[in-house]
Amino acid sequence: MIPFVIDGQPVEGKESGNILEVALDAGIEIPHLCYNESVKPYGACRLCLVEVGRRGRSKMTTSCTYPVMEGIEVLTQSEKVLRARRMIMELILAMCPGDKLIQDMAKQMGVEEVRFKRDDKDCILCGLCARVCDEVVGAHAIQFASRGDRREMMPPFGEEAQSCIACGACVVVCPVDVIKMKEEGDERTILRWKRTVKMKKCKICGNYFAPWFQLEKFREQAKLTKDFFDVCYTCRT
Amino acid sequence: MRRLSSTQELEKLRDEILKKRDPHQPFITVCGGTGCHASGCHQVVDAFKKVLHERVKSNGVGLRVTGCHGFCERGPLVVIHPQKIMYQRVKPEDAPAIFQETVLKGKGIENLLYEHPTTGEKINTEEDVPFYKKQMRIIFGNNGSIDPTQIEDYIAVGGYRALPKALFTMKPEEIIKEVKKANLRGRGGGGFPAGLKWEQCRSAPSEIRYVICNADEGDPGAYMDRSLLEGNPHSVLEGMIIGAYAIGSREGYVYVRNEYPLAVENIGIAIRQARDLGLLGKNILGSGFEFDVKVSRGGGAFVCGESTALMASIEGNVGEPRAKHIHTVISGLWERPSNLNNVETWANVPVIIDRGADWYSQIGTEGSKGTKIFSLVGKVNNTGLVEVPMGISLREIVYDIGGGIPGGKKFKAIQTGGPSGGCIPESLMDLPVDFDRLTEVGSMMGSGGMIVMDESTCMVDLAKYFMNFLKDESCGKCTSCREGTKRMHELLTDITEGRGTMDHIDLLEELGWVTAEASLCALGGTAPNPVLSTIRYFRDEYKEHIINKRCPAKVCRAFLKYRILSDVCTMCGRCAKACPVEAISGKTRTKKEKGIPFKIDEQKCIKCGMCFESCKFEAVEAQ
């Protein structure tokens, strides 16, 4: 374990770790949107900014992407950090003014007004959906398209995401809850990616419990027997 | 061509090439650089080919299409050797006369010579033209005398002389020491000491290391790297081979944007020629050292000039920067130690090795050694590429080399460092060109873009222009950069369209600070420079827009009013024809009829400025 200091408090982190996870484990709050421990840190939202002092020099950086290093001194509440975070929060709020979570976060950080034109976007472009899809699920169904202020998250060419298995991992991981899923009869649809797939019926209870594609993929990945997913999770356990 | 397996064989080849070339034999060079290309140099080349083909006597008169000479304003440029008579703005129909008079009789043709802008005196040779006089063309100079597609031309001017010196007389550590001693700093923008970078990369533990040449030049109006790669690709290649030997690398990449087709082609040809001669590949010149280079073509994203984004792009991923807490010299391309330098930096290496660090470091200032190539563009008489010693003042560049501002207008500011650079006002014109001094005043050296502005440039509009570029070219990953540049552009648009308040300035400054501080890479880190530097030096101009709703440079259309001065109007009717919304009425004067002076209906006018531009008698006034 590598010792260092956050806000004067001695902490320890594992070698491959980052400052944000150590801080959160130690109960030190740092606001963040694009970080999720199940995927690699990305550093897109910039809310988790901290000041890191190392070898007598100090710089502002995102705590999620900064590796744990011995002897560094981290400030999570310095005036500079709070000032930058507030502006970033205001920028995100101007982008997605209708989002409840963003509104609450902004309020908590003291951002009362938005001095910019209000957009009506819902996605904050954190990229978590695509990263979960790549790194955890392995389906690579969605990705960022375009650059600059035209950047958006979409299935290839904006059409039905053919490689999406409709597992719903993106639905779960989205911090602003804008990826919606619906189930009707034997079909599940991920609305945002325009993907509808057939679901499998449980041999015992007769309920449609998960998409065929998802079960096949998971069965292959975990090297399970052919009949493993013939019954649903509830009936199996 | 035979593969060379020793220094002796290379020198023998050089002797053979030189022996074949009679220095007194006349030959014609035509500039084939980007600027001259646009001015039609290819038709000129065809015309010369025709002339040379037709005349039996022309046997032995060589024709060479060279790289960019730098004086693009006056292109297409033609130089007749051995007298080195320079002709400018040559047209295809001039070819027979040039051949007849100059090549055969050695006489100059008056109307094709460059005329001194103040004395009116005709100037014969390139080196006597004021544009070239204060330049120091140690990197760029050979561009004008060699055919970039012929390795023999490069060898003939002393090329590939530094390589055997490095391979056979110096240890890798000694090369690094020499580059450090020369204090070569990265020419791509950051100005990081190249020797230090090489040393860190060399000492990184790995079997495989990469050297990369960054040719993703993307600043609007800048084309120095392009011209080097197009005009003298072997100099870049030689630098890379020496660097690879010093660092301990066997594989290199040239990352060049695909919008530079000639650069892609010429570096490709250069690599093949060097391979054929045994200057690339296994056992280079019999030294046992192995190195090869591949060309990787970029899709033209500005952000791919950033080192980590560039490496991601070579790997086949989206060109997005990643955090550099572990430097690319330790873990870069495919997570291997990677040393990336800009085109111009690599081209400096053979010069340093050949002539020595002691000679090299005499040029320049304390912190910035050697020369720098700038692309001098904008409101200046002599636009083109200039190579100047570090430490030269901006004033010398603009007035002595650039020939001042056209049309008798007043100089206003100079923007250095490309889209993320800053604007430097008249009061700082005596500032020496130096990495650190430019940064001190809120601008930067950047890759070498230099845009001159006169009184007809609106600084708010200029900041808006650059912010528009950056909001499009930000990769979009960091909220602070993507949203920051977008909102700065919005605020600037407000100001230029009359909706600005004094709060806009405060908000721009705060936003600029956050964009620079909170973004991951140098694109976001420097993006606010055009805004912050114009607010710093031209705050009054911002205030004029906001408080008095007036654009002093008469650029921002929202504040303009067009009026036709009836006593000046000749009743020609051009303005009325040009007006797209039929807002101008009057009656054209003819031989029979007297005519009525034209006037503009303010209600209908959309302030497009077409009438202003179309009037030949300055009867349309913009207020």
Key traits:
heterodimer; A: 237 residues; alpha+beta; Ubiquitin-like (UB roll); 2 domains; 7 helices; 21% strand; B: 623 residues; alpha/beta; Glutaredoxin; Rossmann fold; five-stranded mixed beta sheet; four-stranded mixed beta sheet; 19 strands; 15% strand; globular
The portion of residues forming beta strands of chain A comes to 15-25%
Oligomer: heterodimer
Rg of chain B, Å, rounded: 27 Å
Shape of chain B: globular
Low-confidence stretches of chain A: none
Terminal Cα span of chain B: 68 Å
The count of DSSP E runs of length 2 or more, i.e. the number of strands of chain A, is 11
Structural class computed from helices and strand pairing of chain A: alpha+beta
Would you tell me the overall average pLDDT of chain B?
92
Distance between the termini of chain A: 38 Å
**Tally of domains of chain A:** 2
| Spatial strand order of the main sheet of chain B | 12-11-15-13-14
Provide the residue-averaged pLDDT of chain A.
95
What is the tally of helical segments of chain A? 7
Number of helices of chain B: 24
Gyration radius of chain A, rounded: 21 Å
Helix content of chain A: 25-40%
